[in-house]
Each structure stands twice: as C-alpha cells, then as structure tokens.
Predict the structure.
Amino acid sequence: MTLALFILALLILGSAAVAMALRNLIYSALLLIGSWAGIAAFYLWAGAEFVAFAQVLIYVGAISMVVLFAVLLTKQGHAPEPVEFTSLSRFITGLIAGGGVAGVLLGAILGMPLDVRTAQAAPSLTVKELGARLMGPHTASLLVIGLLLTVALLGAVLLASDKRPDQPEDAP
Amino acid sequence: MSPLQLCLILSSLLFCIGLVAVMSRGNAILVLLGVELMLNAANINFIAFWRYGPHPEAGTGIIFVLFSIAAAAAEAAVGFALVIAIYRHQQNIRLQEANRLKG
Amino acid sequence: MNAPGTDYYLERAPLVLRDAIVQWSPVPAQWLVHQLITIVAILAVFGTFFAFTTIAERKLLGRLQNRLGPNRSGLPWWKKGPKLWGLTQPFADAVKTLTKEDIVPAAADKLLHFLAPVLVVTFSLLTFAVLPFGRNLIPVDLDAALLYFFAAGAATELAIFMAGWASRNKYSLLAAMRALAQVISYELPLLLSVVPVVLIAGTLSTQDIVLHQGHWTFGFLPHWFVFTPWGAAGFVIFLVSALAESNRSPFDLPEAESELIAGHLTEYSGFKYALFFMSEYFGLTALSGLGVTLFLGGWQAPCPFLQFIPSYLWFMFKLVGMLVFFIWVRGTLLRLRIDQLTRLSWQFLVPLALINLGNAAFWALTAGWTGPLQLVRWGVSLAIIVVPFVLIGRRLSGTRAPRIYRYAAS
C-alpha cells in the first residue's frame, strides 16, 4: 500500500521538478503531463475513481492541448532561444522562499496529532450518489461553475482572437 | 508515519515545487504551469483528507476537487490566451518585459 | 429476460473456458492468469478484427469504385495456388511493414519520435476495457465506465501532437496542429451526443446502459435507444463525431495524401506507421463498439426469440454493421476542408446536440404519457430535433449559392 504511494510520489515529484527546471518548453509540458497522469494514478489509489478519470480527461486531454498550442503559437518550441532562468539571484531567492514554505508546512504536518484510523477501508462513492450530492446540496456551486466556465471560454476566445475583419465566405 | 501524513507531505512538496517555479522562472508559460502544479497539490490535499478523514460518504472532498479542476481549466484557458495576446505585443513572453503599466 | 438467458451453454462457453484455464494454473498466479486471459483475448480478437477490417475495407472500396480489391495474395509457398480472393493480404501487409527499413530523420527528437506510436496504440487499446462484449463479457466493470472511455480517448491526441512535433518537420507540425484542432472540435459533439443516453439510463456504467435497452414492446420491437427520436438524432451526431475523431473520411484531412503528404505521420515508416494505422482502426472499432453499446442495444438481440444466438455474436454483428457503414461513407462522401470541418462541428453539431439534450429531458419527463398521448410525445420529440436542424442548416448555408450537381454524361 505505502510502497505504491512512494512510487507514485517519486513519479509525481520527479516529473514536476524536472519539468520546472528544463529549458525546452515542450519537454517541460510533456513531463508535466506525466506528472498530472501520476496524480490521476494517486486519485485511483485513494479510491476516488471519478476524480481520477476527470483529471485525465481534463488535464491530460484538454489543458495539455492548451499548453502545447500556446507554446507553438508563441514559437517557444524550437531550440535556438533556450528558456533560461532570469538570474541566479532570483533563483536563489525562489529556492529560499520555497524552502521556507516547505519547512513550515512539513513542520505543521509532522507536528500535528492527526486523528487517523489507518485501518480504514477505502471509501467508495458511486457516481449516482455523487450526482445526487451535486444536484442536491451543491446545486448553487454547480450553476456558478457553469457560468464561470462559459465566461472563461468567451473571454479566452476574445483575448486570443486576431480581430481581423471577416473574410468573405469561400465556396461551400 | 501514517499514510495521511505521507500524502500531505507529497502535496506540500509539490506545492513548493510550483511555488519555486512561479517565483524564479521568467517565462510566462512556465509560471502558468507552476500555478497549475500548485492547484494540483491542493487537490491532492483534498483527496487525502477525504480518504482518511471523517465522513467520506459525504463526498465533500471529491466535489470540491471537481470544482477545483474545473476552475483550474478555466484559469488555464484564460491565462494562456493572455500569453498569446502578450506575445502579439512584445514578440516574446518574458514576464520581466511585460511592465508597461508600471509606474 | 426470458430463457435462453444467462444459463445458455453457448453464452457461458467463453467464461467456462477461462475458468478452466484459471483453475488449471497454480493458485498464487490465478489472479494474474485471469487478467492475462482477458487481455490476450481482446488483443487476439481485435487484432484479427483489425486485419480483416483492412482487407474488407480495400475490397469494399474497390467494389464501390467499380473495381476489384486486392485479390492476388494467396498462400505463401504456392506459386500457382488458389488465390483465396486475396484474404491473406493483411498478413502480406504485416510482413511488408515489419521488414521495411525504419527511417528516423536525423534532426528528429529520437525519444518522442519513438514514444508517439507506442502511446497512441496504448491509449487506443485501453478504451476496449469498458466495452460490454457479451452478457458477462466485460473486461472491467467500472462505475464510471463512460468517463474512463473518453479519458483514454482524450490521451491519444497527445500522441498525435508528439508525432508531429518530434519529426522536426514544419509541415508535420502544421498537420499535427490541424489534426489536433479537428479532434478537439469533435470531442464536444461526441460527448454531448452521449449525455442524453446517460440522462435516460441514469448511469455511466456501460453494462447498465445495455441492460436498460433490454425490453421489447409488443414482444418484438426492441427498446434500443436508436429507435427513439432523441436516440436517432444522438446516434447521427455520434456517427459524424466518431468519423471525425478517428480521422476517417470524409474527415481525413490530417492524413490525406494530396494535403501535407501524410500529415503528422510523414516521417514514420515501417512498423511505426503500421502502429499509427492500427491505432486509427482500433479507435474506430472502439468508437463503433461504444456506439453499438449506447445506441444499438449492445449485446441485446432484436427479438426475444432470436436470443438463442449468443450475446457476443450479436455484438459482433452490430459492430461489423457499423464498420461496413463507415467504409461505405468513406467510399461515397468527399473530403471536407479544415474550416468546413470546424464550422460543421462548432456551429452545427454542438447546438443540435444541446437541443437533443433538452429533447431527451422532455422524453424522460413525459415517460408517464400512455395511449394516444404517446403519439403526441413522439411528435413533439421529433419536432424538437427536426425543426432546429432545418432552421440551422438553412441559416448556415444561406450565404452560399445553391448547389448544382453535374453528373458525367452516361
């Protein structure tokens, strides 16, 4: 059980760390996609199947496309201009800040007495119950997220569009 | 160390990797990828607490993660559209140069 | 379910065979053997299916184009032996692709160039795990089976991009982006055409959806979803989107030879090209299987007295029927341009699929109408889908001149 968790953690953290440090943006994106797939495997390990498939569908299937299209449309895909760290001092500052946050969080986690029954059987929520929860107590959030996604879609299309006047229609 | 603590340590380390990337890389796309990593770390946290906490049958952790994934997708779409718009103005996506509103 | 049902010996034959092999193997490895048998069975059945789909396609296309298909490959060691109508062509093709030189461009990204065909076949095969092939023949019975299917299908797009980018070829990259745009555009109508089925059946599990279609009115009319107004509309939208998702004519712009040579597959030769080809056919077969499951009643027989034919044979018949239909469409319709493709998806199929969802909701809410009200229900349901179809179609083609068909003088 914990061995699987260790392997998954190694995969997730390793891919993420290497992805953030590379100079080639396409490799970064692809390694990050591997990290997201590892996170989906973690969700499967924890028993949240619906979220795992949603993670693969949305992150690996859709957000990865957005990232890759952005990389290609801004011409960052080719080697000649490697993406470098802005400066060493910035990197050191970033590391120190990140290390500080990590220290605080780890201290909190390890020092906190968590009431956990490790011998708990994995909970399983069927899709029907999940749907009932979503349409029952959490309906308002569902409507708001629908509105948010629509507005985000419209906004993204407007921002990225070229604002050229419409070309005359070609032959059908 | 209980499995819950291991999961929380995983999510904290992932969060810090994303944080370091956001603070030290100057490429807009990499910063946005770091933000996505941080959101994913928070989702791992939610699922860990859903799995090992009280009342997993209420499904609150799962529902929150679903909304978090949806919000992250929306934010990624808008963020990368902004990156494309910035590229159209300054022909590169170095965040240090996107300071026309400064001062 | 009337007899012959679950106890019929032909139905249970595959399961009995599998259990016999599992019992025969040593106890610690039994779980592994059980899963391996399922995996090997799927690979063997659908691998052979792929081989015979290729030859069926070539011969059917030949007949549609008024010529014979390949009919020269007989048995290997006979010079003047029987030609077997060319049915051993797939094996000849396999030998050819295996022995071809594997050319990798010098500037290509070796790792990604190698990984792309592997990933695309892997994810295409993963989608087979949730298709119910028979009454008890589903490899993995997941609660969220449909979501798993679409998640595995979505990951194949990534491999298309990797193939196009790793070739370090401007035209491959351009073609890969076009292929990606096509696949993404058609994922939306595909998913939206499946949502009404989930609405009516109330479950995401494929096996439960098939069981939902298992009744017969008047003893002989099956309750398959395709025989309802919203089901028929959903099925048509599903068919069009499935054709586009698997890059198949009339949507085969990414791999058309008169376009960017072979698109994102230009720099692939030999077995890697065969792997891409295989994944396209596996994707098509999996989507056809999903269409059969969701709309055509899966492994259900059309009439109760035809249930003596085992359920997995019914699934195969329906699958073969859908594939023949796809081959027929390939031989008949013209290829669409990329802007026509995307316009069809976003401006036509997505609004119709959303309206269809409302149609299915109306159908579910009026389930209590009986007698003459049933006719009203059918009429309103048909109107909800046909009227927007005509109106949107007229509006979108309003700016164009009317089509003039000129046929060759016969």
